[in-house]
């Protein structure tokens, strides 16, 4: 049985390589310098640093994601009690640390000292019901457990945005301003921070709250942004231009509504907008979905599994790079997003690749559709 599985694996790998080589010639060319954020056609965006492989939003997670091949680091920001921008998803520290209470009730130093890997368990960033021994990185921050080789206890605390910028000079960042009582103040603090820690084009800024994002844009009009929930919902019906915005960050599905379709991607690209797709968790952040989305021509995969996703993204980029060298078709490229592939050609290529890559893993038919926007 094992011998047969190995043989099938080898056949699939060889077929995949052949299909990529053949399929690449079917993909229209892309300008060599598209997009300005990265030379890759498809980019890997590490959600919370790769929160399904490493502790959510930690410097440790971000270092591992970049080492695995991620191009962009995604993070959320909230303000501490002393108005420091902290990398933190929830409005409390309860889900990831051994402490409890609102983020806004702690100083930056208090938050940095917390064990942000306290509840980390692979493929589930907020599981509190595992046996204690399963939380293998608990105690690294406090010195009770030795850090993995090459890392320090500081890599496991609640980081500040300044920590991230100083640790990863020049790294591209996708920053979401969280809503709530400090949302407007957070927008002001982030605008001031970017003005002091540019260049501004290393950032894309998002928020679900349109008012918060509008306030940020008033203060930092040159920073690339993704529209808020109300505006994206409106665009879903109108499909027109979105002046001032550069990227649409959306889930594959919202409830039973399929958001990211071929028409959605084509319409976004026609209006100079990149499409970055985020997931609700381990259930839909899977190879079958990554491959299907790249078949549609999305520009970024906002994954919690950057190490696992990298081979799939690299294979798609290898095909796209080969296509650039085998065609002379002229292409006009939007500022941030690489130009969309022609829908039918791109679809034919990626369906072939999908069949081989996914195989027995393709179990999407019975999956639960996300009904909340939790990113």
Automatic annotation (TrEMBL):
Limits of the GP-PDE domain: 42-313
GO molecular function: phosphoric diester hydrolase activity
InterPro entries registered for this protein in UniProt: GP_PDE_dom, PLC-like_Pdiesterase_TIM-brl
Membrane spanning stretches: 347-365
PROSITE patterns per the UniProt record, alphabetical: GP_PDE (PS51704)
Key words, A-Z: Membrane, Transmembrane, Transmembrane helix
Gene Ontology biological process terms, A to Z: lipid metabolic process
Gene3D superfamilies tied to this protein: Phosphatidylinositol (PI) phosphodiesterase (3.20.20.190)
PANTHER family on file: GLYCEROPHOSPHODIESTER PHOSPHODIESTERASE, GLYCEROPHOSPHORYL DIESTER PHOSPHODIESTERASE
Protein name: Unannotated protein
């Amino acid at each position: 049985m094992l011998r047969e599985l190995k043989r099938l694996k080898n056949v699939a790998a060889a077929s995949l390589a052949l299909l990529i080589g053949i399929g690449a010639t079917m993909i229209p060319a892309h300008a060599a310098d598209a997009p300005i954020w990265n030379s890759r056609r498809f980019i890997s965006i590490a959600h919370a640093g790769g929160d399904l492989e490493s502790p959510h939003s930690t410097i440790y997670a971000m270092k591992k994601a970049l080492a695995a091949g991620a191009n962009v680091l995604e993070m959320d920001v909230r303000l501490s009690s002393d108005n420091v921008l902290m990398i933190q998803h929830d409005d409390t520290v309860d889900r990831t640390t051994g402490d409890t209470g609102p983020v806004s009730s702690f100083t930056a130093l208090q938050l940095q000292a917390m064990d942000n890997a306290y509840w980390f368990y692979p493929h589930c960033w907020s599981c509190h019901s595992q046996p204690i021994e399963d939380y293998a990185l608990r105690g690294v921050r406090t010195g009770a457990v030795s850090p993995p080789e090459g890392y320090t206890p500081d890599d496991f605390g609640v980081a500040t945005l300044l920590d991230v910028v100083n640790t990863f000079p020049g790294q591209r960042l996708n920053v979401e301003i969280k809503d709530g009582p400090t949302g407007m103040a957070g927008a002001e603090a982030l605008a001031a921070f970017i003005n002091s820690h540019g260049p501004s084009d290393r950032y894309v800024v998002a928020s679900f709250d349109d008012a918060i994002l509008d306030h940020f844009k008033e203060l930092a009009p040159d920073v690339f942004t993704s529209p808020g929930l109300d505006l994206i919902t409106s665009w879903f019906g109108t499909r027109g231009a979105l002046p001032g915005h550069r990227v649409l960050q959306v889930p594959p599905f919202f409830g039973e509504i399929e958001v990211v379709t071929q028409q959605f991607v084509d319409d976004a690209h026609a209006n100079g907008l990149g499409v970055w797709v985020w997931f609700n968790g381990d259930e839909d952040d899977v190879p079958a979905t990554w491959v299907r989305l790249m078949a549609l021509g999305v520009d970024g995969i906002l994954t919690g599994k950057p190490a696992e996703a990298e081979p799939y993204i690299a294979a798609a980029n290898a095909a796209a790079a080969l296509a650039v060298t085998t065609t002379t078709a002229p292409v006009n490229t939007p500022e941030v997003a690489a130009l969309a592939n022609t829908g039918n050609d791109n679809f034919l290529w990626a369906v072939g690749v999908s069949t081989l890559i996914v195989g027995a893993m393709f179990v999407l038919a019975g999956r639960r559709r996300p009904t909340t926007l939790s990113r």
